[in-house]
């Protein structure tokens, strides 16, 4: 169950990172509220995951999901560059996440 909490925390990290773009410096009410709510859900979920998963592993996986997911979202929805080198680097992040999951004690 801890890994499920960690996955949900990572998804909500992507959500708040993407929604942060729409807050316009926290001057737009609803995108700002959505961003803060997504941040809160992400934090609560990672705190539940940390009950079982070692801190270093959980944090690396959480930020890796957020970084890779946000970068992919930017490529596919915001037209950001998605060249071979950039996609290869994202693949390395995903490989690192998988490696941490496979070698985790829990």
From TrEMBL:
Q: Where in the cell is it found?
A: Cell membrane
Pfam families membership: Multi_Drug_Res
Q: Which SUPFAM superfamilies match?
A: Multidrug resistance efflux transporter EmrE
Which branch of life, at top level?
Bacteria
Topology relative to the lipid bilayer, per the entry, is: Multi-pass membrane protein
Going by the UniProt record, its keywords in alphabetical order are: Cell membrane, Membrane, Transmembrane, Transmembrane helix, Transport
Task: Tell me the first and last residues of the signal peptide.
Answer: none
Q: Which InterPro entries match?
A: EmrE-like, Small_drug/metabolite_transptr, Small_multidrug_res
Transmembrane stretches in the record are 33-50, 57-78, 84-104
Is this entry keyworded Lipid metabolism?
no
Query: Known NCBIfam families for this protein?
Result: PRK11431.1 (NF008512)
Q: Which family does it belong to?
A: Belongs to the drug/metabolite transporter (DMT) superfamily. Small multidrug resistance (SMR) (TC 2.A.7.1) family. Gdx/SugE subfamily.
What is the protein's given name?
Guanidinium exporter
Provenance organism: Candidatus Nitronereus thalassa
Gene name, Swiss-Prot/TrEMBL? sugE
